[in-house]
Fold each of these.
Amino acid sequence: MLRSLATVLLAAAAPAARARATTLLNASSFDGFVGGHDVTVVFFFVPWCGHSRELLPTYERAADQVRAALEASESARSCGFAKLDASEDEQIAARYGIEGYPTLLLLHTPRPSALGGAVGAPAPREFRGERTTAAIAAWALNQLEPRLPVVRSVAEARALLHAPPGAGVGGPVVAAAIALIPPGHAPALLSAVRLAAAELNSIPWVHCPSADAADIGRELAHGEGGDPLALPALVVLRAADGGAAVLPLGPWDGPESGWEVPQSGGFAAPLYAQSGASGDGAASAGVPSGAAHRLGAHLAEWADAHALPFLMPYTASSAEMLFGTRADFYALLIHAGPTLTSPVGQRATGSDGADALPAAIVRALREAADGGLRGSFAFATVAAADFPEIAEYVGLIPAPTAAADGAPGASTATGAPVGWPALPALAVLQPSMSLKWAFALGAEGGTAGGEAGATAGGAPSAGMRLANPAQLNSLLAQIRHGALAPSLRSAPPLSPPPQPVAGRVTEIVGSSFEAVVLQPSWHVLVYVYSPWCGHCLRFNGTLGEIAAELQPIESLVIVALDGTANELPGLPVGAYPSLFLYAKGRKDEPVEFTGARSRTAVTHFVLAELGEDESVRLARSAEADWRQTDGAAERRSAQHAAPSKVEL
């Protein structure tokens, strides 16, 4: 009998004298190695990355532990651990969309099906847990053979929330998922839950097959009151507020061709069959053939979306929990009171912290979450008095009289922070794109979407809009679908408005960025500088020479922007000076210049990116002329000016 992999893993953690269980791959060996294992973990790195060098020994120890665990348990499954230098094999990294280093990616190999053909493999999965040997090893083993322990009581289920760190989830337990599936229900449904457990390994997953599972589910979800749950169902218990979320899983009686996985956030309807035949004549399973992977992914998505309370108070300890979710956007309700001592639940209870917040705004956010945005969005409250840096970041400006009454962020006798009159406010962050949207939440009659020159408190708020709380649902939906421009800090508009022309450098500000840089008929070279940067001061003259040299390209303009006074939409400015080329037809893919800040290097970069149209050929001709005349003279002058060894 095979021993539990988790038990064997603990024994395998002891150091042993064995060769490292990792293999260095390249483009020619990659596919063969991956195809030779059921599961392959690949460590994508670049040699010059300090984080890559730091994580590599941890990764190799995890590989040793997993190999030892599989050998000791006599498992028939195989797990390969590989390393790939992305600087040498860029095409492999590009195939999987690897952008940062190091990245741990797990790949499944399709398996033969008993009915013929192959069982489709789930999508590649990136490791996002704690970067420790135990967490990486537990993650790999759980992906290889997802474990679904059994619980048979309310006490056993609730005890999951108090498991010690590292108990299979790589960190503190924020929630637990309990699949209430008594015997007689679809076997394929349990398989989908196992796949969900592998997909979302940051929380523990268990199976409750007890005959009284409906009563267990009722007590988990509603306490002593309420009716027994309709089964099968998935219950997510939350550690932050002790609450629970329930997802019905059946029944489903339609033909296979009519089955659909709900869209993100839209899990209001039951999902899966209790019985019934699949459309291809296979044995009754309740879950259509080939759908288990899709259902597993959606169960993981739903569980992740409900692992935290509806409105989580932002604190130093909850920040990691909040931003550890897989949400794309974070909606932060910035308020004037002190930090809440408890989360706001999905339902108003009168004692969950909601009383300290404006009722209309909480109601609007609840409607947005219930309307399908939960999962894509995570919601939290932020006390401006305790976290003034967040208020400043989203555009709240301290009142001019704050110094007389107290420092910005200090509290008055009423508890309202001095210096932040534009409250309450809502900030939406999209960390993956470095974007934010900020709204000063006015009265019910406020104008949604309009720029806020001043809030109800009378203080201007840079880059903020004035929004009606009743329209937050619509605004958040627009943000999710990319239909609402982000809030950006901008220097005051220039007068007259900038009119870039070929051959010279034109100054712009953040508010004119879109109108100028995204103009479809222009190639635009964007120069981002800092007024106090010495390298920028030296490069300014060079940039003017570059503009003059490239003047024959009439569709190319060069603009300069102060990066310290303006924010740029999704532009990763890591240092000054920075140069980005927005080519016609490729405005959504700006190319950063990473070479030497010299006239020749920048000119070659622009010409190489723009291609072979007539204007580019003309510019290359001009460059050739310069090399034959001025360039030659410049080189001769430099030679004459160079000191000899005798002079040294």
Amino acid sequence: MVKFLVVKAPSAYNIILERPSLNLFRAIASTFHMKLKFPTSVGVGEAVGDELMESTQCEGKEGDDRH
């Protein structure tokens, strides 16, 4: 079982999963390809990130000290 903590705050991330959770889900993450692959009952599921959307959403987030 994985417990999630839901917070209402601006963030550059939708979800943060640690390695134990990824192992539990039998998921494989690729930060280079911005993909997460995981087994499903009908094959392999895939969650794909959008690099352009991610980069524009990160601008102005708290902790961004480039400005």
Amino acid sequence: MKVVVARAALLLGAVLTMSLGSPPASAQDHCGAIAISQSTGRLGWSYDFANRQEAENAAKR
């Protein structure tokens, strides 16, 4: 479990670091998601999807 939390913290830190240096978002809506398996600790992510459900499904693959 500690490994999963450590990976999640590392991923969150990377996302926050990237967002601080990015320009303001355009008016278009784009969705992304981050998924973490509690049983295996595997990570998944997605970005640039039209809606939340599509982004979540892609992150879980």
Amino acid sequence: MKAFGWNMLLALVWLVLSGNYTISNLFAGMIMSYAILAYLLRDSPTFEAYFKKLPKVISFGLFFIWDLIKANGRVAYDVLTPTHLMKPAVIAIPLE
């Protein structure tokens, strides 16, 4: 959490110094501050986990968004076409 705090602090400093308060500028500041922290703290064991986990979190987020778009597309296609491909059913799962 400490590395994320430093990353956000540097991104906000970038945002204030640039004077352009947009989401894209904040995103650019986050990328630059991540690169700066990764370069300066590459040998620090406390920040090592952050630098390994962040790309995985971003990858998972993109995977989730892509699956969400695909699922919504399938439902929209099924609703808009005259033939329904989905077959609703009740699944019984024994509790004991």
